[in-house]
């Protein structure tokens, strides 16, 4: 590796081409800045290539496959034998989706004047980075930099991911055959999403969670429907349990699991998936040479403008404290770009929506009832079950409910949460309502189309006010 003597000068360098990095690059290009975007793998990052998009493609396919079981009640008759799921064909379909989206990102970068460099970037100083590409080494001098290097799965030291028997989320989405059995270490959203998907495809799934319930960071009342459905799918859920050892014996994964009662047992499966959490990719990018401070867990503290302790160096996405969500990274990337261009911009909203593609889906924004009460609010809650919604009944998707959390004194909305079909697409109304500091009357007085699931928000809001039409008001 030879360090070149001449540095290429640019206004901004961005380290990482994931959802935050490429959004920042495109916005900077729109604002007239010269931009070098460095990505060591493929544009779109983990989200597009190995995470969000591939996993949702699997979940959708599994939903369609599993949904065949319910067609009989609608009068649709299918052969009782012969229906199969070919993961090899699915892999080709998934690859096509990723390719199309990746090409779109590359085109947008090109059209906005962004220079994309494939390689591993590291800081050489607080105004230079070096990029290693195919044995060459190039130096770039910058005025500002954005760190968007993302995160990776956390794997305990006693577990070795081999990609064949012991999997991380990436290798689990590369399987070409549906495993007969799968144990999942971690009952968070990734474990639940993938576990339920594979269970729908016929895999015998066991989920092992350290906490006393799955999805421990989500309000308990929202998780009950998912827990019930997981058991209906035949998923064996072991809570308050910890994996002490993992080994591969004769083509099977053996896990030694200890429970809260100090009992130990062996869980044996064809594959094991590790979904404990994620860690930021901040160790090997030379942050010390740039003077950027890193916290104990590897995160980079930033202000509302996404500035680090070095004012002309910004950090976004999974490298910063907070939920590791692609939409949060994109928002931060756009804010950082606008601040660099001299515009007044900031990440000044607490309303970061979350979505879990479980069965049924969970989505929400703002405070839960428990959180609102802990913060001292006097709370009123409106709740409307989908079992009373015409659209839900017509599509055989009656599980779940819409819930609004309201300040009893001002009637300002504090939180909106939903469990049910298409909750991921319906939460947008909640995000906008909270951003606009709407009152519950604003939802209740807005005409919602019929028959749709959006009427769940309308009826939940009306329930707070005591005049919901399709349920008995308490």
From TrEMBL:
InterPro entries: Class-I_Pyr_Nuc-Dis_Oxidored, FAD/NAD-bd_sf, FAD/NAD-binding_dom, FAD/NAD-linked_Rdtase_dimer_sf, Lipoamide_DH, Pyr_nuc-diS_OxRdtase, Pyr_nucl-diS_OxRdtase_dimer, Pyr_OxRdtase_I_AS. Gene3D superfamilies: 3.30.390.30, FAD/NAD(P)-binding domain (3.50.50.60). PROSITE patterns: PYRIDINE_REDOX_1. Its EC number is 1.8.1.4. Keywords: Disulfide bond, FAD, Flavoprotein, NAD, Nucleotide-binding, Oxidoreductase, Redox-active center. FAD binds at residues 56, 149-151, 318. This is Dihydrolipoyl dehydrogenase.
């Amino acid at each position: 590796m030879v360090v070149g003597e001449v540095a290429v000068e640019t206004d901004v360098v961005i380290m990482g081409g994931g959802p935050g990095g490429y959004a920042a690059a495109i916005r900077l290009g729109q604002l007239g800045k010269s931009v070098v975007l460095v990505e060591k793998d493929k544009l779109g990052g983990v989200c597009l290539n190995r995470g969000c998009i591939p996993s949702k493609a699997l979940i959708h396919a599994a939903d369609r496959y599993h949904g065949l079981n319910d067609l009989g009640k609608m009068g649709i008759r299918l052969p009782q034998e012969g229906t199969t799921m070919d993961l090899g064909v699915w892999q080709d379909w998934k690859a096509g989706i990723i390719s199309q989206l990746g090409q779109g990102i590359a085109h947008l970068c090109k059209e906005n004047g962004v220079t994309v460099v494939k390689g591993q970037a590291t800081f050489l100083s607080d105004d230079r980075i070096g990029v290693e590409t195919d044995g060459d080494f190039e130096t770039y001098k910058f005025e500002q930099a954005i760190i968007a290097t993302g995160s990776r799965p956390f794997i305990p030291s006693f577990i070795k991911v081999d990609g064949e028997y012991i999997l991380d989320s990436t290798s689990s989405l590369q399987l070409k055959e549906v495993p007969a059995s799968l144990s999942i270490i971690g009952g968070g959203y990734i474990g639940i999403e993938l576990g339920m998907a594979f269970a729908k495809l016929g895999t015998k799934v066991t989920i092992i969670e350290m906490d006393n319930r799955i999805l421990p960071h989500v309000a308990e009342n929202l998780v009950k429907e998912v827990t019930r459905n997981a058991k209906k799918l035949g998923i064996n859920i072991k809570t308050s349990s910890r994996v002490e050892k993992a080994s591969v014996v004769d083509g099977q994964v053996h896990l030694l699991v200890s429970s809260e009662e100090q009992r130990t047992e062996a869980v044996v499966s064809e594959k094991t998936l590790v979904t404990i959490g994620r860690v930021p990719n901040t160790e090997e990018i030379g942050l010390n040479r740039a003077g950027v401070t890193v916290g104990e867990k590897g995160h980079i503290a930033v202000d509302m403008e996404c500035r680090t302790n070095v004012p002309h160096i910004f950090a976004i996405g999974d490298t910063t404290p907070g939920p590791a969500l692609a939409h949060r990274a994109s928002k931060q990337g756009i804010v950082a770009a606008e601040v660099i261009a001299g515009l007044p911009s900031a990440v000044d909203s607490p309303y970061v929506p979350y979505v879990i593609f479980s069965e049924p889906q969970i989505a929400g924004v703002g405070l839960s009832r428990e959180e609102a009460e802990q913060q001292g609010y006097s709370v009123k809650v409106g709740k409307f079950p989908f079992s009373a919604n015409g659209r839900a009944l017509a599509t055989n998707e009656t599980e779940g409910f819409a819930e609004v959390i309201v300040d009893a004194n001002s009637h300002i909305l504090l939180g909106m949460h939903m469990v049910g079909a298409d909750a991921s697409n319906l939460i947008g109304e909640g995000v906008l309502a909270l951003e606009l500091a709407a009152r519950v009357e604003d939802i209740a007085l807005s005409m919602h189309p019929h028959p749709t699931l959006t009427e769940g928000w309308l009826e939940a809001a009306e329930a707070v006010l005591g005049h919901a039409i399709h349920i008995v008001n308490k």
